[in-house]
Design a protein that fits this description.
By secondary structure, this protein is an alpha/beta fold. Helices cover about 50% and strands about 10% of the residues. A 5-stranded parallel beta sheet has the order 2-3-4-1-5. The C terminus is likely disordered.
């Protein structure tokens, strides 16, 4: 029987070496996240006019929400941010700034609810499950123009499915609307389901709620005597 050579004894690495290795690993992981961010932003479907949006220009509550969401934390039941306010006060701009701030840690998607409903209606509604599943799976999502989608007997169900899935899975979601709570409830009542409307409104308000004030920036940016379309 051949002798099995004795294994040599190895000294455990010093705490300094362990700390240095952990620091290098963390730096590499952060570099990889930053490398992926531009591609995620490009694939998100964010309108070009919002690609320059920055948290530096946002309401402090919006910046705080984005900071917490990036760390996997939130206020309230779920990582939802509801941005409400009149037309042209910068809701979509700030929503996209918050979304892009999450690019190092999440896949992203931007949608406008009227277009989502149109996509769901395509092919006699057979595309609905696929479209809702696509948006439900995004790491972070902006739902813009909520309440302006076409009112059909199936609209409230599609909106509820999307909102509920993201609420249940606790995925960062920014919801943008220029309607009040009562106006949203009235809208979904016209869709034929007031109860579903209450469920939608309850969930989108379960996190942070920010109401933006100010003048319509589209009028301010337009030439004198002529408003932007």
């Amino acid at each position: 029987m051949s002798a099995i050579p004795a294994l040599g004894k190895f000294a455990a690495p010093s705490p300094e070496v362990v700390a240095a290795c952990a620091e290098r690993a963390a730096a590499h992981a952060e570099e990889e996240r930053r490398r992926l961010a531009p591609a995620r932003i490009a694939a998100a479907g964010i309108p070009w006019r919002y690609l320059a949006a920055s948290l530096a220009d946002c309401d402090p509550a919006v910046a705080r929400w984005a900071s917490l969401a990036a760390e996997g934390r939130w206020d309230g039941e779920a990582p939802f941010l509801l941005l409400a306010g009149a037309n042209g006060v910068g809701k979509s701009h700030q929503a996209c700034a918050a979304l892009m701030a999450l690019a190092p840690s999440s896949t992203l998607a931007f949608c406008e609810m009227p277009e989502v409903v149109e996509a769901c209606c395509a092919d006699y509604g057979r595309n609905a499950d696929r479209e809702i599943a696509r948006l439900s799976c995004a790491g972070a999502l902006v739902i813009d123009e909520l309440g302006h989608e076409r009112a059909t007997d199936r609209t409230a169900q599609w909106v509820f499915n999307l909102v509920h899935r993201r609420w249940k899975r606790r995925r960062p979601t920014v919801v943008v609307t220029n309607l009040s709570t009562q106006e949203l409830l009235d809208h979904y009542a016209r869709c034929g389901d007031a109860t579903m409307g209450r469920s939608i409104v309850s969930r989108i308000g379960s996190g942070s709620v920010v109401r933006l004030e100010g003048r319509d920036r589209r009028f301010s940016a337009a030439s004198p005597g002529r408003a932007e379309p």
